[in-house]
């Protein structure tokens, strides 16, 4: 893949479990202020589950870094609020994880949009984007109390390694072939 043009196949409208329709698309550099606004709308718990700390605001240099990807080694998908392209409600991303064939995955869904299947769709497409870029192994650090994320990874991935330290579960996994459940 490696460029926004090739990543355009991920730009589409998706229907959630409750019938809501949102636009999913690859992140763009101009999403920087939208990322800051999304962070501002996350609950304290959701902020902590994603970043393992609670910052008052997402620093602008972090937002710039997170919004600027190469669509190959670093990739991110966002979901826009219905009829409001200026409001992001979710982000899913992968970043290099220090090993050539492994990336770290992370995502966050705004509290009001959790439990509707948005995270599952974003995660599935993120894994597909990684596969299209030749990436097969994934790593995630998840707070032990974040049952939703742990369950989602177990549903969509075959966990190869699991470690637990100071309340954080580190998982290394490969994507489960489509249509195969645990």
Quick overview of this protein structure:
By secondary structure, this protein is an alpha+beta fold. The chain has six helices and eight strands. It has an eight-stranded mixed sheet, with helices on both faces.
Feature tags:
182 residues; alpha+beta; 8-stranded mixed beta sheet; 6 helices; 8 strands; globular
The whole-number mean of residue pLDDT values reads: 85
Give the helix/strand class.
alpha+beta
Over the alpha carbons, how many angstroms does the gyration radius reach? 15 Å
Order of helices and strands: HEEHHHEEEHEHEE
Low-confidence stretches: none
As a percent range, the share of helical residues equals: 25-40%
Cα(first) to Cα(last) distance is 29 Å
Strand order of the largest sheet: 1-2-3-4-5-6-8-7
Strand content: 35-45%
The counted number of beta strands is 8
Shape: globular
What quaternary form is this?
A: single chain
Largest sheet geometry: 8 strands, mixed
DSSP helical segment count? 6
Helix-strand layout with pairing:
Blueprint: H1 4-7, E1 12-15, E2 21-26, H2 32-40, H3 44-51, H4 60-67, E3 75-81, E4 84-99, E5 102-109, H5 118-132, E6 137-143, H6 147-156, E7 157-165, E8 168-175
Parallel strand pairs: 5-6
Antiparallel strand pairs: 1-2, 2-3, 3-4, 4-5, 6-8, 7-8
Helix pairs in contact: 2-4
Task: Write up what this structure looks like.
Helices cover 30% and strands 36% of the residues. The protein contains six helices and eight strands, in the order H-E-E-H-H-H-E-E-E-H-E-H-E-E. Strands 1-2-3-4-5-6-8-7 form an eight-stranded mixed β-sheet, sandwiched between helices. A hairpin with a 2-residue loop joins strand 4 (84-99) and strand 5 (102-109). Helix 2 crosses helix 4 (60-67). The longest helix has 15 residues, at 118-132. It is globular. It starts with a helix and ends in a 7-residue tail after the last strand. The model has no long low-confidence stretch (mean pLDDT 85).
């Amino acid at each position: 893949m490696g460029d926004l043009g090739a990543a355009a196949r991920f730009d589409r409208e998706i229907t959630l479990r409750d019938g809501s329709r949102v636009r999913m698309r690859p992140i763009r550099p101009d999403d920087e202020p939208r990322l800051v606004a999304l962070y501002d709308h996350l609950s304290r718990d959701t902020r902590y589950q994603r970043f393992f700390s609670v910052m008052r605001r997402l620093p602008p240099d972090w937002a710039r870094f997170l919004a600027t990807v190469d669509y190959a080694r670093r990739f991110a998908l966002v979901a826009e609020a219905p009829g409001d392209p200026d409001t992001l409600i979710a982000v899913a991303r992968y970043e290099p994880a220090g090993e050539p064939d492994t990336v770290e995955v992370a995502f966050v869904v705004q509290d009001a949009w959790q439990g509707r299947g948005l995270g599952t769709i974003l995660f599935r497409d993120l894994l597909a984007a990684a596969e299209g870029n030749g990436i097969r192994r994934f790593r995630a650090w998840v707070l032990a109390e974040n049952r939703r994320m742990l369950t989602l990874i177990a549903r969509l991935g075959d966990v190869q390694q699991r470690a637990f330290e100071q309340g954080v579960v580190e998982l290394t996994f490969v994507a489960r072939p489509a249509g195969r459940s645990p």
